[in-house]
C-alpha cells in the first residue's frame, strides 16, 4: 500500500493555488471547475508524482492549527537540503521556524505554514 494523494480545502483558492505552484513549485496536472459543487479541484504533482488535490468550496469552516488539535497534524515534504529550502522560502516572504534536529533520526527539519495556516514540514533526506 502507498499514499495516493492528500486533499486540502483552502479558504482562498487563488491564493493557495499561487502558494502551492509558485512558492512551493508544485506542477499542475489538471484543474477543473465542478459547477454542481461550486468547487475548483486542482491536481498537483512534485515532478511527475501526483501528491495534492487542492479544493475550493463556498465558505468552508476554519480548522484550528494552533494549539494542535485532532486530525491531520501537518504535511511533510522531503528535501535534499533544509537550509537551501528554508532560505528559498524566506526569500519568498514566508515565516519559517528555525532548523531543528530530529532526536530519533538526527535529520534536519523545519516548519512553515500555507496560506490557511496548515503546518508544512520540510525534512532532509
TrEMBL record:
The keyword Metal-binding applies. Pfam families: Glyoxalase (PF00903). Residues 2-125 form the VOC domain. Keywords: Metal-binding. Gene3D superfamilies: 2,3-Dihydroxybiphenyl 1,2-Dioxygenase, domain 1. InterPro entries: Fosfomycin_Res_Enzymes, Glyas_Bleomycin-R_OHBP_Dase, Glyas_Fos-R_dOase_dom, VOC_core, YwkD-like_dom. CDD domains: VOC_Bs_YwkD_like. The keyword Transcription does not apply. This is Glyoxylase I family protein. It comes from Epilithonimonas pallida.
Amino acid at each position: 500500500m502507498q499514499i495516493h494523494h492528500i486533499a486540502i480545502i483552502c479558504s482562498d483558492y487563488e491564493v493557495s493555488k499561487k502558494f502551492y505552484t509558485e512558492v512551493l513549485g508544485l506542477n499542475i496536472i489538471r484543474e477543473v471547475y465542478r459547477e454542481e459543487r461550486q468547487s475548483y479541484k486542482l491536481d498537483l504533482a512534485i515532478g511527475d508524482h501526483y501528491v495534492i488535490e487542492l479544493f475550493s468550496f463556498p465558505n468552508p469552516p476554519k480548522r484550528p492549527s494552533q494549539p494542535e488539535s485532532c486530525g491531520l497534524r501537518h504535511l511533510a515534504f522531503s528535501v535534499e537540503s533544509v537550509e537551501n529550502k528554508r532560505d528559498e522560502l524566506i526569500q519568498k516572504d514566508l515565516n519559517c521556524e528555525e532548523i531543528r534536529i530530529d532526536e530519533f533520526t538526527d535529520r534536519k527539519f523545519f516548519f512553515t505554514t500555507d496560506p490557511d495556516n496548515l503546518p508544512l514540514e520540510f525534512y532532509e533526506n
